[in-house]
Amino acid sequence: MSKFPVKNHNVNRFSSRPTAAVKRPRGPRKVVIFNKPFDVLPQFTDEAGRSTLKDFIPLTDVYAAGRLDRDSEGLLVLTNDGKLQAQLTQPGQKTGKVYYVQVEGAPDEAALVQFRRGLELKDGMTLPAGIEIVAEPEWLWPRNPPIRERKSIPTTWMKVTLYEGRNRQVRRMTAHIGFPTLRLIRYSMGDITLQDLALGAWQEIQYP
């Protein structure tokens, strides 16, 4: 059980995308959680020599369920089970993903309402999303390097719940309502959370 309780926002969500047929692995199922640091790619190889999962996780038969961009931090779930990957990532499964987001500026309720109703981005309308202003999480680790803050502009922490996973979606959505993302941490995918995992650490878990 996580010592940091998390509850997905209760929003209306829907998707018309079909769910592809997937199979369970032939061998034992593996589910790994990883607390990804900033500036680490969510993959095991990189021809440019950048930091990857291989620098932290000595496994070869698991793959990331969804992406977590190089400049984002927090929970990455890896598994050899295609069915679980689909359950966690396909919009039709309605699996909530919770992020803690630090933005530049101070969003008002009107901006949050836009976010909750869905936003028209270049790749189409987003699903309704949960969003609320929160205090900076007490469990949060320092980022290396720190974000660049401007003394004349305040920053705000928000908790965001998404039910889809488009490319850089949270960042594009906060920018759309006028508040650029400075820092982005994924805390949970469904009922899988970071627990108390240290930054850069991984752990194999039992999952139903």
UniProtKB/TrEMBL annotation:
Disordered: annotated span: 1-22
EC class name: isomerase
Residues forming coiled coils: none
Single Gene Ontology MF annotation: pseudouridine synthase activity
PROSITE patterns recorded: PSI_RSU (PS01149)
Matching InterPro entries: PsdUridine_s_RsuA/RluB/E/F_cat, PsdUridine_synth_cat_dom_sf, PsdUridine_synth_RsuA/RluA, PsdUridine_synth_RsuA/RluB/E/F, PsdUridine_synth_RsuA/RluB_CS, RsuA_PseudoU_synthase, TruA/RsuA/RluB/E/F_N
TM region positions: none
All copies of domain Pseudouridine synthase RsuA/RluA-like, residue ranges: 31-176
Entry-linked CDD domains: PseudoU_synth_RluE
Matches recorded under SUPFAM superfamilies: Pseudouridine synthase
Keyword match Transmembrane helix: no
Pfam annotation, one family: PseudoU_synth_2
Keywords: Isomerase
GO biological process, one term: rRNA processing
Residue spans of biased composition, Polar residues class: 9-18
E.C. number(s) listed in UniProt: 5.4.99.-
UniProt similarity note: Belongs to the pseudouridine synthase RsuA family.
PANTHER family: PSEUDOURIDINE SYNTHASE FAMILY PROTEIN-RELATED, RNA-BINDING S4 DOMAIN-CONTAINING PROTEIN
Protein name: Pseudouridine synthase
Naturally occurring in which organism (per UniProt): Hafnia alvei FB1
